[in-house]
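Quick check before the chapter quiz. The format below is the same one you will see on the exam, so make sure you can read both the input and the output lines.
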Amino acid sequence: MATLLDGKKIANEIQSEVAQRVLEYKNHNKRAPHLGIILIGEEGASNTYVNGKINACKAVGFEYTLLQFAVTITEGKLLKQIEQLNKDDDIDGFIVQLPLPKHISVDQITTLIDSKKDVDGFTNHNFGSIVSHQPLLLPATPFGVIELLKRYKVKTKGKHCVIVGASRIVGAPMSLIMVKQGQSTVTICHKFTRDLAEHTRRADILIVAVGEPGLITTDMVKSGAVVIDVGITRVPDTTKKSGFRLSGDVDFENIAPKCSFITPVPGGVGPLTIASLLLNTLKAYEQQYT
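Here is the expected output.
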């Protein structure tokens, strides 16, 4: 049976480390790091994610500012709000919670964010720094994955890592991080890759970030592989009070017995995304204020 990669446990460790650093700054009469959060609309999942980030800020002693706007906000007004946050010396870093309404360009928004305050790690400047000797603010979810592997002492050097999902948020930066920091040989696929199973079966480390429940079945994973499931989707479930359950991209129950390590959903990568956001905010604070 696989060793469970407990993201919640590692996230708690990181939160404790960040909280200690914040306390040290406060003891030296310095202000706490300050995270800004822009939330558009009332979409349920986005509200849940933002609440998780706010609770994490409270837990480590960060200041936070939540700016919530109606789904009808114009792109121009949102861009002006971002410009204000860029200039606000009291805000060390900020995020714009995705997804955005269809009438707002994610590329336009990302381009305007000051890379020094881009604690989601989405700007071209931060994205490109992944391949440098001094990476800046790393994309939060891939940052969380590599931190999880390091803290569980999962060997990545020389291993064949197959990533399913090529998004700008997870798959693409994850491939660069695994090459640069993990020193792995990387194959990157997506859900439309022909003969996907032929690729996934070769993986020593399989990272899946597609958002398609049950995409990876037991016949697609080799014995002893490390499996990281980044996907998380709400699936209708009448047995649950909420009416849904959270499902990953991997058939966890059937795949877990043949793996060496595997992440659960929920409780795997999700908590580490927030923990990475805290680390990035602390780093942005230290670079700009200390």
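If your answer matched, good. DSSP finds ten helices and eleven strands in the chain.
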